[in-house]
Structures are given as C-alpha cells and as structure tokens.
Amino acid sequence: MTTANVTIIFTVTPEELNHMQHAVTTVLKDMGPIDLNILVYLALNELTLGRTISHTPELSMDTKIPTIFMQHTPAQHQTIKLAVQHVASYLYKTFYHHLDAAFISTPAQIIRAGIQQQTVTVVFNSHEEERPWEWQYSILPQ
Prior knowledge:
The structure is a single chain. The chain has helices spanning 14-27, 36-48, 61-68, 74-102; strands spanning 2-11, 108-116, 119-128. It is of the alpha+beta class. The chain has one domain (2-128). The chain has a three-stranded antiparallel β-sheet. A hairpin with a 2-residue loop joins strand 2 (108-116) and strand 3 (119-128). The chain is elongated and about 75 Å long.
C-alpha cells in the first residue's frame, strides 16, 4: 500500500464567507481572534470522521481542541467547539459535493486544510492499493 496526497479545492460564495466569519466572530468575541484556518481544519476533519476514516476518539475535535488551544480553559474549549460547528455548517454541503466527486481511496485523513479569501484547500493523506502494471496486448479479435 502506498500513500498519496490528494488535494480538493473549492470555493464558497462571498455571502457564505461573510456569514461564516460573522458567526465565528460573534461566538469568539470574548476570547479574541482565532485563526480561521484552524477552525476550517477542525470542521472539515470532523466532517470526514466515519466517512473517509474510521471515527476514533483521538481524531475528534473534542480531543484536538485541548491539544491545539492549550492556553485556553475548558469553558473556552467549548466556545471554540461551537465556532467549529458554525464553520462546518457553512462548508459541509459544498465540501461533501466535492468529496464525493473526488473518489478518494479510503482510508484518507486530512493533513492540512485552510481558507484564503473564498478558496478552501483540503489536503488528504490517502492510501492507494498497489496495482499491477502488467499489460497484455493481442492482435486477435476480442
């Protein structure tokens, strides 16, 4: 089995991006700014659990948030979790559409995700099965 990186790139509408940023800013107003790229990664990772990889507790945002945001309190972790849920709600429909169209070999795990302007980039670490490359040619009618 070999490993391949698969990248999915999709865009969101300006309205969706504005609504998403407003929702995140509103939820996190008492905590200060948090990088939207981290929230996008956590949201898309959560959306793929059980779909491209098996759902295990160490891969869920309940485990990842305290390890990424160690400087925050458990109550603030719950607020960050709510912000991640908002991001997921704005991205899930478009993300699933592109994920289904990509035909990624499973298991596949997100290793990097982020948003720049309206473009979301998701990089998967996918496992490809070895395929034999034995070609056979014949001039006989098939």
